[in-house]
Amino acid sequence: MKTVGISEVTLDTETLAALLMELGSQLHIERARRVALEEALAAAGVLTQEAICAAGSDPTVRKHTQTMLQDSMRKLMQVLTEDRDPRVPLRQQALTDSFKQS
Question: What is the pTM of this model?
Answer without folding.
Answer: 0.56
